[in-house]
Amino acid sequence: MSERTISPRPAARSLLADAGATLTEENIHRLVHDFYDRVRGDDLVGPVFGREIAPDQWPAHLAKMCDFWSSVLLRTSRYDGRPLPPHLRMPDLTDAHFARWLALFRHTADAVFAPADANRVIALAERIGTSFRLAIALHRGEDTTKVGALPRP
To answer: What is the enclosing helix (H) or strand (E) of 58?
Structure first.
């Protein structure tokens, strides 16, 4: 795979400006695969993913997640999907699941990327997690004013 650095759109410049050379397709692949290895072995979120993704569907899911993160981080436009609807169909998702997902993601991003790049990637994941939690609360008819950023451990 070729190594690519970010060419951010003006709207993304504040978060992605001056990104380092560790934001590459190779490292995105490593992030996704290492992260989901951790997820699958986790006592809290592992069973949720195990229930939602059949064993033979993992390669396709990992490829889709690589496309998603490539699109988000490198603006490749490879991802063409809607990530929220599957999460809306899971009535048992809680803030504890999102907090654990983020903790695993932070740990993996810190291991894959240089510190400045890891911070950028983690900030995006946190924003995505908050957005999903808000949408889920709205979908469930819950008070969305009580949804805020999850604290870092």
So the answer is: helix 58-74
Predicted TM-score (pTM) of this structure: 0.83
Structural contact between residues 30 and 110, judged by C-beta atoms closer than 8 angstroms: no
Half-sphere exposure of 140 (CA within 13 A, CB side): 18
CATH 1.10.490.10 assigned to domain 19-80+95-142? The reply is yes
- Quote the tokens at residue 21: 């050379």
**pLDDT tens string 9-19:** 444 433 444 45
> Residue 44 in contact with residue 100, Cβ under 8 Å?
yes
Domain range annotation of the chain: 19-80+95-142
Q: Pseudo-torsion of CA 55, 98, 96, 100, nearest 10°?
A: 70
Judge contact between 84 and 135, C-beta under 8 A: yes
